[in-house]
Amino acid sequence: MSNRITFVQGNEACALGAMYAGLDFYAGYPITPSTEIAETLSVMLPAAGKKFIQMEDEISSMCAIIGASLTGNKVMTATSGPGFSLKQEALGYAVMAEIPCVVVNVQRGGPSTGNPTHVGQGDVNQARWGTHGDHSIVALSASNHQDVFKMTVEAFNIAEIYRTPVILLFDEVIGHMREKLIIPEEGEIPLVARLRTSLKEGVNYHPYLPREDGRLPMSDFGDVHRFNVTGLYHDMWGFPTDKPELVQELLRHLIDKIENNVHKMTFYKSYFLEDASTILISYGSAARSALSVVKQRRNRGESIGLLELNTIWPFPAELVRECTQHADLVAVVEMNVGQLTQSVKLAVGSQKRVHLINRVDGQMIIDKDIKRILRILQGRGI
Predict the structure, then answer these.
(1) Which of 265, 300, 331 is the last residue of a domain?
(2) Average of per-residue pLDDT values in the chain
(3) Are 165 and 297 contained in the same domain?
(4) pLDDT at res. 1
(5) Quick one: pLDDT band at residue 2, thresholds 50, 70, 90?
(6) In sequence order, what are the residues at sequence separation of 6 or more whose Cβ sits closer than 8 angstroms to the Cβ of residue 83?
(7) pLDDT of residue 105
(8) Cα 257 to chain center, whole Å?
(9) How far apart are the C-alpha atoms of 28 and 15, rounded to whole Å?
């Protein structure tokens, strides 16, 4: 793919990033505001000799990409709101069976049908805890199309390294807005290939026996090795077990492989934090407005900065703690009732220093919304 400049929607940037990452198979069901991802890939994948399929619903879409991943393919599906809810059971299966896959959620207003054509960021905690049971998850975000492309590629890389589902948590404004995208040269962003076992046919293959580095080599399902895949707790052969020591060992493995590598999958951008007494923390399209406010106030001599999180989960608590340790005021800018704010409060360790600046009416939070609340928080009046 040659280096070129294009003018696209965020959803198209996501599709282009997926193709760059080596996407082989997409299964999905149309739902606003993510439909353009499927629409774009329905043309690009067949043209590249790869597979696109429109399924009957979001549950079957998730199950289809799980099966395709097990047979050796890089896979993705995309949805929004109610569709993301429907995927949760199969998402949990992918966590338990350690199946690499990428799930895009272009957020809109909720709950239920909510506000299909308007922006929201209300699925942050659903991305973390939507499927049942103790588990860890990776969720990435972006505030511009260049980062949409990059985070999509990184989602595939993380999925392959850690054998885990990765969620791309975009929103309606990012998905439908058009702006410039520079498509990187081939090799400019490193790609992680599927780690396959070197064991030959006839040699006993243990699908859930990690190497010394913690990674699990895979064998394409239906190829030379026979093995079992289940959503139950299982042993190294993939067969169900209820032995307490094996159950605990597997659960700790599923959690630790992500939580112990937070630093390796933390993506962020920082603006003017060195001397900032007031720090805004934001993500997605809300971070665009937050950055605009920060630049305006810096020009007036105010010591204010922005920490934009591209990695939402696992939450980069150490990064947040380090960046805010000298700040008098920390304000989280998001379009929900404070879903990430709670994690920021825990990381900062001070309820009094952390505040929420939000908007939840289906409209994008803009400069004046942030300025109005900032004035109150800084004791300047309304």
Answers:
(1) 265
(2) 96
(3) no
(4) 46
(5) low
(6) 29, 31, 34, 58
(7) 98
(8) 17
(9) 13
Please state, in angstroms and rounded to a whole number, the distance separating the CA atoms of residues 248 and 265.
25
Do 258 and 111 belong together in one domain? yes
CB atoms within 10 A of CB 48: 12
Within the chain, strands assigned E span: 4-9, 25-28, 51-54, 75-79, 101-109, 115-119, 138-140, 165-171, 178-183, 268-271, 278-282, 304-309, 311-313, 329-334, 354-358
Given a contact cutoff of 8 angstroms between Cβ atoms, the answer to whether 107 and 120 are in contact is yes
Number of H helices, E strands in the chain: 13, 15
Residue type, 101: C
pTM over 0.85: yes
One domain for residues 136 and 160: yes
Containing structural domain, residue 227 = 1-265
CATH of the domain at 275: 3.40.50.920
pLDDT digit string (tens) for 149-188?
999 999 999 999 999 999 999 999 999 999 999 999 999 9
The answer to whether position 382 is within a domain reads no
243 and 297 inside one domain: no
The pLDDT tens digits of the residues spanning 16-30 come to 999 999 999 999 999
In the chain, how many domains are there? 2
If you write DSSP's letter for every residue of 49-95 in order, what string do you get? Answer: T-EEEE-SSHHHHHHHHHHHHHTT--EEEEE-HHHHHHTHHHHHHHH
Give the pairing of strands 268-271 and 304-309.
Answer: antiparallel
* Predicted local distance difference test score (pLDDT) of residue 317: 98
pLDDT of residue 3: 60
Is the same domain home to 343 and 313? Answer: yes
- In tens, the pLDDT along 84-130 reads 999 999 999 999 999 999 999 999 999 999 999 999 999 999 999 99
